[in-house]
Design a protein that fits this description.
mainly beta, globular, four-stranded antiparallel β-sheet, single chain
Length: 142
């Protein structure tokens, strides 16, 4: 498990890499790497290539507004009993109705924020195996 966070500091920018993963004769788009920014500080984990060096890996970026509360964040991945990768990360900010999604369309939805609550993202705990993220858990301000 790798932790990328700065306790007490909200994430100001998020970069997410995704790409193709083959399993059981099928091809899936899964998350490969994450880089979180806290103003000028940043930390990354997983496979985060320069876009010019690996054109088959997709890169998405999100810059949080000043009031960076998230009202829902979902991680999509297989059931815990199934071995697999994190398929996607999706979240929504209520101010300005901003939405972010990165990754593929597979996996089961795993909501990370209780309904009706708003949270501030500080980082992530993640497991990485090779070029794929196997587990992803957001860290919210307490």
């Amino acid at each position: 498990m790798v932790r990328i966070d700065r306790p007490g500091k909200p994430v100001t920018r998020l970069d997410v890499w995704s790409g193709e993963f083959d399993a059981a004769g099928k091809s899936y788009t899964v998350l490969r790497g994450i880089e979180a920014w806290w103003e000028k500080e940043h930390e990354k984990a997983g496979y985060t290539p320069d876009p010019s060096s690996d054109i088959r890996t997709l890169h998405d970026s999100f810059i949080f507004p000043a009031k960076n509360q998230i009202d829902w964040l979902d991680v999509y991945h297989p059931k815990p009993s199934e071995h697999g990768c994190v398929d996607s990360l999706r979240f929504h900010l209520p101010n300005g109705d901003e939405y972010f999604a990165s990754g593929g369309f597979g996996g089961d939805k795993h909501p990370q924020i209780p309904r009706g609550k708003q949270c501030v993202l500080e980082g992530f705990d993640l497991d990485v195996d090779g070029k794929e993220i196997r587990r992803l858990e957001p860290i919210f301000k307490k």
